[in-house]
Amino acid sequence: MAEASLGQIIAPAVVLMSAAVVAVPLFRRLCLGSVLGYFAAGVLVGPSVLGLFTDAQSILHFSELGVVMFLFVIGLELRPHKLWAMRG
Question: Ramachandran region of residue 54, left (φ > 0), alpha (ψ -120 to 50) or beta?
Answer without folding.
Answer: alpha
